[in-house]
Specification:
Layout lengths: L1 E6 L8 E9 L7 E8 L4 E6 L5 H9 L6 E8 L3 E4 L11 H5 L8 H11 L15 H13 L5 E5 L7 H18 L2 E5 L3 H7 L2 E6 L2 E7 L10 H13 L6
Parallel strand pairs: 1-5, 4-8, 4-9, 6-7, 7-8
Antiparallel strand pairs: 2-3, 2-5, 9-10
Helix pairs in contact: 3-4, 4-5
The protein binds adenosine-5'-triphosphate (ATP).
């Protein structure tokens, strides 16, 4: 693969810079077809698009998790990148705190892990096993595992996709709070247009492997009943080829 990967370090630079990114799994057609994208430090970007338009492929490229894929282009990301997936990927044979601090160095690792668990509302669950946590709690632990590494870039692929509606709403509030505190740049892949508008500073819609729509969310009120919210939702659903209900 001819990808020219680099590391961004200075704060004047964008946190993520992607230029002319191509990715393909077959000889017949590309999934990403010359994609350009910048994400500023601390900026929260939601990535939406029809099924199969390459959202996860882009996220995996940024995470350095590309497999079975050919391509070229330039990708620049910060040193500290964390990834959260739809399933928590906690190791079942390790207690929650040990999962959170897995691979961390330093005498204060346990202390930092416990602090991260407290931040996501899991104080007191350090010695629990993953199976003793609900799905939502497991995703909280997964967020703690990411944040304890103090990422400059947080990549999240449908992190709330498997959760019930009420837990999702709670997780939205938690993620927003955590991002306001830690200020990583965020790329969140989601199928949920409302989730994108509630959470993000910018919503990017992928189509045919390039950026089709790039809108800044400037709503003072992110409530679904707000007319600006409804207008933005209609615009995005329209671009997705869906008629708003
Ligand atoms: N490992 C792979 N091998 C072969 N094809 C793949 C592989 N991973 C993804 N693809 C194909 O690449 C295309 C884009 O997949 P990707 O998972 O990036 O889409 P997506 O936009 O995230 O889709 P969804 O919204 O359904 O999750 C799809 O056509 C998919 O079948």
């Amino acid at each position: 693969m001819a990808t020219d990967a680099g590391r961004l370090t200075t704060t004047a630079e964008p946190a993520v810079r992607v230029r002319n990114l191509h990715r393909s799994f077959t000889k017949d057609g590309g999934v990403l077809n010359g994609l350009d994208l910048d994400i500023a430090p601390g900026e929260f970007v939601a990535l939406i698009g029809r099924s199969g338009t390459g959202k996860s492929t882009l996220l995996r490229a940024l995470a350095g998790l590309d497999r079975d894929v050919t391509g070229h282009g330039r990708i620049e990301v910060p040193d500290a990148v964390s990834v959260v997936f739809q399933d928590s990927r906690l190791l079942p044979w390790k207690r929650i705190l040990d999962n959170v601090i897995l691979g961390l160095r330093g005498a204060d690792a346990a202390e930092r892990g416990a602090k991260a668990l407290a931040e996501v509302g899991l104080a007191g669950r350090e010695r629990s096993w993953p199976y003793q946590l609900s799905g939502g709690e497991q995703q909280r632990a997964s967020l703690a595992r990411s944040l304890v590494r103090e990422p400059r870039l947080l990549l999240a692929d449908e992190p709330f996709g498997a959760l019930d509606a009420l837990t999702r709403i709670r997780m939205h509030a938690l993620l927003r709070r955590l991002c306001e505190t830690h200020r990583p740049a965020v790329l969140l892949v989601t199928h949920d247009v409302d989730e994108a508008i509630v959470l993000a500073d910018r919503v990017i819609l992928l189509d045919a492997g390039v950026v089709d729509t790039d809108v800044r969310v400037t709503l003072a009120n992110r409530h679904r009943s707000d007319p600006g919210f409804a207008e933005l939702r209609t615009l995005l659903l329209d671009r997705l080829g869906v008629t708003a209900a």
